[in-house]
Amino acid sequence: MPLWLFFVDLLRGSIFTLSHVFGGSVGTAIFVLSVAIRLALLPLTLRWAIRSRAYQARIRRLEPQLARLRLRHAGDLPGLADATRTLYRKHGIEALPKGTGASFLIQAPIGAGLFQAITSGVRRAAGFLWIPDLAAPDLALAAVAGALAAAAAGISAEGSSARSATVIAGLLTFILAWRLTAGVAVYWVASNAVGLGQAILLRRRPAL
User: How far is CA 132 from the centre of its chain?
Assistant: First the structure.
């Protein structure tokens, strides 16, 4: 995997180059690089979010028919799945919003590479703000990451799914950030902050 290792090394080198720019602060470098990457991806993620919102709106319009299918196929999950697929096909609705695969294939490697660059590049005694060691977990930073993830999910989701999306996104992010290093939590704080801004921007856009 020479190409992948080169990519991770490039990101790791970018972190340490930025840390010199910001007076040796690795945490600031991680934050700035994470925001920069997330903003660079914003045209892609915003386009996908708009498509996803329109997709969910189409699904909600079918809710009365979906409710009838759930009653008709109560206890028959395969039958319900087949009937749901038939209904979607009748209305020209795909299994996933258009562009989901492309969005994942672009974002996933970048996120994984930055994650690996942070976890392999941050050494002990690298502090940031109140955090004495970016290589160790930090409860407060994990809580901030979870709160931002919950806020972004809550604003993005609509209808009955908003509450569950908020709880799941916030709790899952908090647990993972608490279990991993503070350096990774800084990355999630930065990424989720941009994600929250995107959700607010999208919320102001009239629904299709």
Answer: 27
